[in-house]
Structures are given as structure tokens and as C-alpha cells.
Amino acid sequence: MTDSRANDNSLKTETSNNSGFIPGDDTWTQWRNVFAILTDRMTDEGKEQFRIARDTRNEAADCKRCEDQRDYLLQFSPVIRFMSDSIRQLGGNLSSHNIYCRRCTSRKAGGFDPDYGILLCANEMKDQSHLEDTLAHEMVHAYDHLRFKVDWSNNLRHAACTEIRASSLSGECRWAREFFRRGQWKLTQQHQECVRRRAILSVRARPGCKDEAHAEKVVNEVWDSCFRDTRPFDEIYR
């Protein structure tokens, strides 16, 4: 005879958080979660739980794919090779030993630390092109750190300037990426608006920034000189 109380407890466990997310790694549970998302029966909290569980489950495969793509780009990507050479000329060295592929819990694509190198968030990489843009972005930060002695901790103008340059030069604001992936459909001033938007978001996230208005003010103060500065490139070409 089946114990109805056990079934009731199991059902309560599945639905107790009211988020619509059901824990479990088996295929049937995964399909139930996907169906809940597609039918809009999962809350934002549940979707985040689903993403965390998926990223944890796929961590080894995501990191392996990220490392393979990283190594390929270091060898064959024109923009990554050019940035690597430019950084080397300033006394720096970025390669597979200090460009790390890791699972990230925050929803970002990567980061640069002057003491450790570059972080690529393997679970956030959509494809090799996305990884290339992210790596190029962080390499611009590395170049700026060596070339301009960026004060990362205390100077928001420095942070704004390097974010403007990184978004402008990395290729992440090129028209096709904005149009097809981010739904930004303007045909004029699209590149500039993308760079400005992403720079403001980055500055806003820094501890010394008061609010979005403060971030926008700082970005505007350095915009003209930093957007025009395309070093080490001759021009914006991506």
C-alpha cells in the first residue's frame, strides 16, 4: 500500500518555495523546469535557482570549452594576438597561465585584476565570438593599467575612461551584436550609445559611485578624450 503522506511530503518539498523551480539533476526534472519557464510558471527567483543548478552541473564542461576557445583565440585571433603583443611591449604578459576560465556566481562575463590577470566566466560565455569580445575587453583594461597607471580603487574618472575604451575597442558594441543580441535597433549613433550605456553601468557598480546620475556625470566628464583614444589601435575597426 502506498503511503499517501510520503507523496504529500514530496509534493510539498517540490513546491514549498513557490518559485516554480524543482531541484534535481535527472532529465525529467530538467524538462519540467524548462516547461515551467516556457509557460511563465516560474518566478524570477526560480529562474535564478535553475541557472545556478545548471551552471553547477555543467561547470567542468563549460570550463573545458572556455579553455579550448581561449587557447585557440590566443593563437589565431587577430585582435587577441595584437593585444597580447601590445601588452608584452609594455612589460606585461597575458597567456593561458593567467587567463582563467571559472564558473562565476555573479552575472558578468569576465573581469581584470592587476595582481592576478583575467577572469573569463565560463558559464556566461554564449559562444567563441562572445568569449573573444570579452577577452579583448579585459585586455584593453590590462593595457590601460600598464600604459596609464589606472587607479582602480579610488578614481572613478580612471575607471570610466578605461570602460569607455574597452567597450569601444573590444568589438562588443559593434552594430551586429547590438542589433541581433541586445535588441538595440537604432541605425545611427548606435556604437556611441552602446559604449556610453555599458560604461555607465560599470561605473555605477563601483563602491565609490553614489547613484546612476553620478555614474553618468563621471562618464560624460571623460567621454570626449577617452572615446577618441584608440591606442594601441590606429582606429576602431571591430
UniProtKB/TrEMBL annotation:
Protein name per Swiss-Prot or TrEMBL: Mitochondrial inner membrane protease ATP23
InterPro entries, alphabetized: Peptidase_M76_ATP23 (IPR019165)
Keyword flag Membrane: yes
Annotated membrane topology: Peripheral membrane protein
Signal peptide range in chain numbering: none
Keyword Transcription regulation: no
Family membership noted in the UniProt record: Belongs to the peptidase M76 family.
A GO molecular-function descriptor: metalloendopeptidase activity
Start-end of Polar residues biased regions: 1-20
